[in-house]
Write a structure and sequence with these properties.
binds hypoxanthine, globular, 9 strands, about 300 residues, 5-stranded mixed β-barrel, alpha/beta, Rossmann fold
Length: about 300
């Protein structure tokens, strides 16, 4: 299989042009929904659906029959683009492929990205079913050379050496807490650890990640957020705690993908309330808030 470690600028632009010619409005908010969380897409009004297979250079879905499409429309009066079907590194894609959708979204004019994921709870104070707004992340594959920014830098997208001090907008985090309080949803906050997957963590790894400062752990999100930050996007991220991470080899509990999906469905109504509330009150995007600004 031909899997590019980096993707030339014209491929992003060709993909964006193919989507743009079908749009009837200019979306400003991108939504990426994690495992079991995709049903929020069904709440988008007047949806225009674009299958991934109709967008040039878009990573092809690996599982036949799996939902893989962009849904464009309105949520709380905001023009949004949602990915129904996320792309994960563990499926066999490169980090460049995993993050192509975010760069395409930015080229379409999207300046705000809302990402969600299913995650294990490392923080002993978290329970299955909790929602955590992401304050910051630890991206372990990046330390092994699997950065989505690996390869020639596309200068018009962002700088070679990105500043990552403010990957997750503090303004949007505060707004999320305000919305949560108003709607009676308990909202945690913490650091998300992003691993490559697909295996779940061993108990020794859970203890290590907790000692490193992680509160939740999953197999996505940080690559997309690094690319979004490179292109000056404002990011809001949520981890849904679908299971508690097991830190003891004597444990008789088990984590299964089915449990992850089941808990996800249980969390969706609260997560949807948070995202809808944030969209309702979304402040105007101010490019000056980002250290990195592309020349699109
Ligand atoms: N670990 C990694 N990814 C996950 C988990 C987990 O415990 N739960 C849901 N996604």
């Amino acid at each position: 299989m031909d899997q590019p470690l980096w993707i030339p600028e014209e491929h992003y632009r060709e993909a964006a042009a193919a989507v743009k010619q079908r749009l009837t409005q200019s979306p400003t908010v991108g939504l990426i929904l994690g495992s079991g969380l995709g049903t929020l897409v069904e709440e988008i009004k007047d949806p225009l659906v674009i299958p991934y297979t109709e967008i040039p250079h878009w990573p092809p879905p690996t599982v036949s029959g799996h939902v893989g499409r962009l849904v464009v429309g309105e949520l709380e009066g905001r023009p949004v683009v949602a990915m129904q079907g996320r792309i994960h590194f563990y499926e066999g894609y490169t980090m460049a492929q995993v993050t192509l959708p975010v760069r395409v979204m930015r080229l379409l004019g999207i300046n705000t990205l809302i990402v969600t994921n299913a995650a294990g709870g490392l923080n002993p104070g978290f329970a299955a079913g909790d929602i955590m707004v992401i304050e910051d992340h630890i991206f372990l594959p990046g330390y092994a050379g699997f950065s989505p920014l690996y390869g020639p830098n596309i200068g018009s997208f962002g700088p070679r050496f990105t500043i990552n001090t403010h990957c997750y907008s503090s303004e949007l985090r505060k707004l999320a807490h305000k919305v949560a309080a108003a709607s009676g949803v308990t909202l945690r906050e913490g650091v998300y650890v992003s691993l490559a997957g697909p295996a779940f963590e061993t108990p020794a790894e859970v203890r290590m990640l907790r000692a490193a400062g992680g509160d939740s752990v999953g197999m996505s999100t940080a690559p997309e957020v690094l690319v979004a930050n490179h292109m000056g996007m404002r990011v809001l991220g949520f981890s849904t705690i679908t299971n508690v991470s097991l830190d003891n080899t004597e444990s008789v509990d088990e984590v299964s993908h089915e449990d992850v999906l089941r808990l996800g469905r249980q969390i969706v109504p609260r997560l949807a309330a948070l995202i809808r509330g944030v969209l309702r009150e979304l402040p105007a995007y101010d490019p000056a808030q980002s250290e990195n600004q592309p020349e699109l």
